[in-house]
Amino acid sequence: MGGKNTMVESRRPWMAWVYLAPAILLLLVFTVWPIINTFRMAFLVGYRGLEAVQGKTFPFGFGNFTKVIQFQDFLNCLRNTTLLCVITVPLSTFLALLISVCLNSIKTLQKGLQTIFFLPYVTNSIAIGMVFAAMFNIVGSAHGTSNQIIITAGIVNNIITFFGGEPVNWINSGSTYLANMTVMVIYIVWNALPFKILILLGGLQSVNKQYYDAARVDGTSRRRIFTRITVPLLSPMIAYVVITGFIGGFKEYTSIVGVFGEKMGPANDQGRLNTMVGFIYDALENNHQGRASAAALILFGIILVVTLINLQVSKRRVHY
Question: Which are the contacts of 215, defined by CB distance < 8 A and separation ≥ 6?
Fold first, then answer.
């Protein structure tokens, strides 16, 4: 019996590799190889896929990186991406924390409210962007009873005019960069809330209630309970949503397309709100695979540096 058990034990590692082989093969083909190929193309100066197929060779060097950095479009994309990250990640995290605390204190209809807050997370980003575009639109036309043209506005401008304000050109031709960024910040923050609320609310529900009971017995104010108990106990979850928020923020693209379309900006200034990912897609569309790969590696380096900084800060601020 002992010999049979030994034979079974010795075969198990091989069986495991057999079962894992399909998944490993798919990862090698569709994940590992594309990453390796991206590094290869990034260091082949002026690499173009069609020309490479025809037999043209490309010198090895850092030319793709220098060209990417020298492009004014790239610097604009980097500015847009950085601004969106720096503004939306802290703001969405703070709002998600406040909403989570409020939801945790509500016992009736809590599940229903959680479902409502989670709906944007399971909705297509492009569809949500189209809804936001309609909400912030300023110009539309409809024919009245005597064939006159009636100028219509989105719900946001209708609310502004209802309270006596003037309509704002948020996203249409002639709109300002500040107005465009305001719309995108509102949309990205709103779209980022569901996931963060889910994580933070789960953390709140796992906190030992004895901490809060002891604080109430001592007469501690709600503000002090929030800053001295809730935030420290939730610090691991907060660090997690901040890190993942920055990673996702630097890859922002679909939200801009959803609101402004493929032109990534209003009609009078197309590409105004283009991001790093949009820059990479534009380079691929124009058959500049080397340039796109270099931009992708630069984006990877930025995300890596920001993540490492967040991890270092978390080590000092997070309480486990």
Answer: 224, 225, 228, 229
